[in-house]
Amino acid sequence: MQPIEGITPDMIWSFGYTMLGMIAIIVCIEKIPDIVWKWKDRKKKAAEGPQANFADEICDKIMDKLEPRFAEIDNKLKADKARLESHEYAITGMHKAQADIYEGFSVLCYAMIAVLNHGIHNGNAAEMEDALSKLHEYLTKRNHDM
Question: What is the pTM of this model?
Answer without folding.
Answer: 0.34
